[in-house]
Write a structure and sequence with these properties.
71% helix; Serine Threonine Protein Phosphatase 5, Tetratricopeptide repeat; mainly alpha; 228 residues; 3 domains
Length: 228
């Protein structure tokens, strides 16, 4: 260790080790070192937190990641877009859409504009809450800011309409996605197919024409719904 040779590591040195541990998947070791850093009176910076939060998020530890984000805020460390998106996503997953929107406003005041990930989080959250019209307004806003919807955006809208049993609107979004050059993925097909099944339009000619575009995995999806 550097301490044994008379050198006292600074936060840059600790960040290098923490980042290496996180990338190796040794999150517990990284957190232990993080604790030691604070005990030594060395103030973690945004790089320190970024390494740990990235690792936690990749491992699906959203609650722990959110805890560290809140710790950053308490320590007056400015968040970047990645950090804000994690916080916004956490609020949305907890059903706290207003808090998520407040976080977006705070982010903007810091001079950080929402990106595609931010908008997709908000669109998905509103759709799942049954507020598809508001989700469509958010999509209009992102387009005005020169951010084009992607397959995730369209998938959220399709799912929102399916949840409301509005299959005509879901089909309209699906066709619009293709028309605008955004190729549907397997998830898009499965959302649409499951929506059609639950809407009890499985025997329609329109559904059959839709099926002909689908892959084998989508056929498996609808089969599992029918036999369950």
């Amino acid at each position: 260790m550097m301490e044994d040779r008379g050198f006292e590591p600074n936060i840059v040195a600790y960040n290098t080790v923490i980042d290496s541990l996180c990338k190796k998947g040794s999150l517990n070791e990284a957190l232990h070192l993080f604790s030691q850093v604070k005990v030594k009176g060395i103030r973690p910076d945004i790089v320190t937190y970024s390494c740990l939060i990235h690792a936690m998020y990749d491992l699906g530890q959203q609650e722990e990641a959110t805890r560290l984000l809140n710790e950053m805020v308490d320590n007056n460390i400015s968040l970047n877009i990645f950090m804000y998106n994690i916080l916004i996503d956490a609020h949305c997953k907890d059903g706290k859409i207003f808090e998520a929107l407040d976080t977006v406003d705070t982010m903007k005041k810091q001079g950080i504009e929402p990106n595609l990930v931010t908008y997709n989080i908000l669109v998905d959250a509103h759709c799942k809450e049954g507020k598809v019209s508001k989700a469509e307004d958010i999509v209009d806003t992102m387009i005005k800011h020169s951010i084009e919807p992607n397959v995730v955006t369209y998938g959220a809208l399709i799912n929102g309409h399916c949840l409301q049993n509005r299959m005509d609107k879901a089909r309209k979004v699906f066709r619009s996605m293709i028309k605008k050059g955004c190729a549907p993925d397997i998830s898009s097909y499965n959302i649409m197919i499951n929506g059609m099944v639950y809407a009890k339009v499985i025997n329609s000619k329109r559904l059959w024409n839709f099926f002909k575009q689908c892959r084998t995995a989508s056929w498996n999806s609808i089969l599992s719904v029918i036999i369950s």
